[in-house]
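Lecture notes, continued. The same structure-token format from the folding unit now serves as the input rather than the output. Read the line below as a description of shape only.
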């Protein structure tokens, strides 16, 4: 088990440098990623001025810097913001269907690497989660949370050990950082060889088979029960995640055509986001229709739903961090 991310939720922009220094001094091999999440962006704040607040040192620390409402006029600045600094992550809160066409145009305009740092959050409010890009410091006081990489422990039936150990680490970090520890986003998320797709397939036949839906629902139930048994405070999503470009098996299933866009949408009824880090052909009508479908899935589920789509043009795209991102079949 590793701490996939420790994310400090900073309520005051003037404290960005102070908390960056605090994070930089955490020399723990169990911590994979260090992050700072900022509040929902005030409507009167200049985005260019906000960028200037980022420290020029500690390039290993990343920032969920800009979190906008769907009707914000500053949406047109997002592409330039993402291009300006690879440490910056941005997301937009979507509560209606009024602006989906404009949001689809925005996504299609992004380069693959930029699109990997941009998301839409379909929900009624901003979300307190360590997971980027859909993270914001939607809280009244400075605090932090953690997310985990515990695929291997889950496979071995050691979810209790993983969650208990992580919670202990969180409480130790609370003393080191001297800020409030809020809890764990217990989402089961993959990273390349540590595949959640393998867990789903081991309980059904293959991606995609209709039994995948019950397998995913059972995994979510096990996560919930593990959190409850170990008295962990769950934050954020705390469900199974299926980011295609972050899971080697899911990537292969998309490449071979057995996992399609329709399958991903169907599975998103029972997991946190079926449309995550997936390459989709840059067609405006397709993107707008996907976002409409996602809106109504989220409306039905009544749970937060994050979307990251990577624009493609008929073939896979290459990114430095994720390698090859295949284009999913739109059927």
């Amino acid at each position: 088990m590793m701490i996939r991310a420790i994310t400090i939720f900073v309520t005051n922009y003037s404290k960005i440098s102070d908390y960056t220094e605090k994070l930089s001094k955490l020399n723990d091999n169990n911590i994979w990623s260090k992050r700072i999440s900022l509040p929902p962006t005030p409507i009167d704040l200049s985005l260019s001025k906000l960028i200037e607040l980022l420290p020029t040192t500690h390039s290993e620390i990343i920032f969920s810097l800009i979190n906008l409402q769907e009707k914000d006029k500053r949406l047109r600045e997002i592409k330039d913001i993402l291009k300006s600094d690879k440490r910056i992550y941005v997301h937009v809160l979507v509560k209606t269907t009024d602006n989906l066409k404009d949001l689809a145009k925005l996504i299609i305009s992004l380069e693959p690497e930029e699109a990997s740092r941009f998301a839409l959050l379909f929900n009624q409010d901003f979300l307190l989660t360590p997971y980027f890009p859909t993270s914001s410091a939607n809280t009244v006081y400075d605090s932090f949370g953690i997310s985990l990489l515990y695929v291997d422990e889950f496979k071995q039936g050691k979810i209790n050990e993983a969650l208990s150990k992580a919670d202990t680490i969180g409480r130790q970090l609370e003393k080191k950082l001297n800020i409030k520890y809020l809890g764990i986003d217990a989402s089961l998320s993959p990273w390349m060889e540590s595949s959640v797709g393998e867990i789903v397939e081991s309980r059904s036949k293959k991606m995609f088979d209709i039994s995948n839906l019950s397998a995913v629902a059972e995994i979510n139930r096990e996560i919930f029960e593990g959190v409850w048994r170990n008295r962990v405070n769950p934050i954020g999503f705390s469900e199974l995640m299926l980011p295609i470009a972050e899971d080697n098996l899911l990537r292969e299933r998309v490449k071979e055509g057995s996992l399609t866009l329709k399958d991903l949408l169907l599975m998103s009824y029972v997991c946190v986001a079926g449309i995550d880090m997936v390459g989709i052909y840059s067609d405006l009508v397709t993107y707008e229709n996907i976002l409409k479908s996602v809106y109504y899935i989220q409306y039905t589920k009544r749970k937060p739903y994050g979307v990251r789509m990577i624009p493609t043009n008929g073939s896979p795209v290459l990114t430095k961090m994720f390698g090859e991102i295949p284009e999913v079949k739109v059927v």
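Point for the exam: The chain is about 35% helix and 20% strand.
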